[in-house]
Amino acid sequence: MGDGATNIGSFHESMNMAATWGAPVVFIVTNTLYGEYSPVRMTTPIDDLARRSEPYGMPCVIVDGKDVEAV
Fold first, then answer.
1. How many Å apart are CA 25 and CA 38, to the nearest integer?
2. 1-46: per-residue pLDDT in tens?
3. What are phi and psi of 12, to 5 degrees?
């Protein structure tokens, strides 16, 4: 999903359900710095979108999508 999706309720509902059920889910967010037409810095209070997983007790990993070995 794109970074704009991290502001949508269904994203948070999915994270909560996955964390509550202990489901083996991987959420991949592509940070393009824009959510549709708005810069992320104007719609989200945090710079690092991977931190969205912290309230749900889920680990996060940040990788450069251009680095094949890291991905």
1. 28
2. 888 888 899 999 999 999 999 999 999 988 888 877 888 888 888 8
3. -70, -35
- Please, are residues 35 and 43 in contact by the beta-carbon 8 Å criterion? yes
Cβ proximity of 70 and 61 under 8 Å: no
Which DSSP letter does residue 2 get?
B
Looking at residue 38, its pLDDT comes to 84
What would the 3-class secondary structure string for 7-71 be? HCHHHHHHHHHHHHHCCCCCCCCECCCEECCEEHHHHCCCCCHHHHHHHHCCCCCCCCCCCCCCC
> What is the value of pTM for the model shown?
0.80
Q: Are 47 and 27 in contact (CB under 8 A)?
A: no
